[in-house]
Design goal:
This protein has ten helices and two strands; from the N terminus they run H-H-H-H-H-H-H-E-H-H-E-H. The chain is an all-alpha fold. The protein has a single domain, classed as Hypothetical protein, domain 2 (Endonuclease III, domain 1). It is globular, with a radius of gyration of 16 Å. This is DNA-3-methyladenine glycosylase I. It comes from Enterococcus alishanensis. It holds the Pfam family Adenine_glyco.
């Protein structure tokens, strides 16, 4: 059974690849979680974040957007002392800021999910990658979304981070064509 080459270095990466990566996500809270995890990956390896994901879930109240939006200085201090997550004050403050921006968006009648999927009119982009060397670190779509997120006041959302996010949440299917998940994910697209 062939899988994307990046997923062969550990059991946790294999499991993430086989069960989660690239599957279309339409739930706003789950999308927000992925955004914050990818934001925390900036400058680090994905395996670092993957291995800490349970700790992130616990530390960030299971990524409850409402709760995160109201984190205060005491909560920031608590997070800064939590060795189970990435203790970067700018990233923690960006998560709080971004939760507030999502709530503002939703108060105006637009869910975070609808906002993100609107960029592709609800369609998954098929990367049709023959191998990992064909996968870019960013593209026009990630540039466009990054620009719009920044205009809306989001922080720590560079184009490379957004591209990784789009792959993770299935907006871009970047599984290698020979990977067994490529076709499975395509089947999931049709069922949503």
């Amino acid at each position: 059974m062939h899988r994307c080459i990046w997923a062969n270095s550990s059991k946790s990466e294999e499991k993430y690849h086989d069960e989660e990566w690239g599957v279309p996500v339409y739930d706003s809270q789950k999308l927000f979680r992925k955004l914050i995890l990818d934001m925390n990956q900036a400058g680090l390896s994905w395996s670092t974040i993957l291995n800490k994901s349970d700790n992130f879930d616990a530390a960030y109240d299971n990524f409850n957007i409402e709760k995160i939006a109201h984190y205060d200085e005491a909560k920031i201090t608590e997070l800064m002392q939590d060795a189970g997550i990435i203790r970067n004050r700018r990233k923690i403050e960006a998560a709080i800021n971004n939760a507030q921006k999502v709530l503002e968006m939703e108060a105006s009648g637009l869910s975070f999910s609808d906002y993100i999927w609107e960029f592709t009119q609800g369609k998954v982009i098929d990367g049709k990658r023959k191998n990992v060397n064909e996968v870019p670190v960013s593209n026009e779509l990630s540039d466009e979304i990054t620009k719009d997120l920044k205009k809306k006041g989001f922080k720590f959302v560079g184009s490379t981070t957004i591209y990784a996010f789009l792959q993770a949440v299935g907006i871009i299917n970047d599984h290698e064509i020979a990977c067994f998940r490529y076709r499975e994910v395509k089947e999931l697209e049709r069922n949503f």
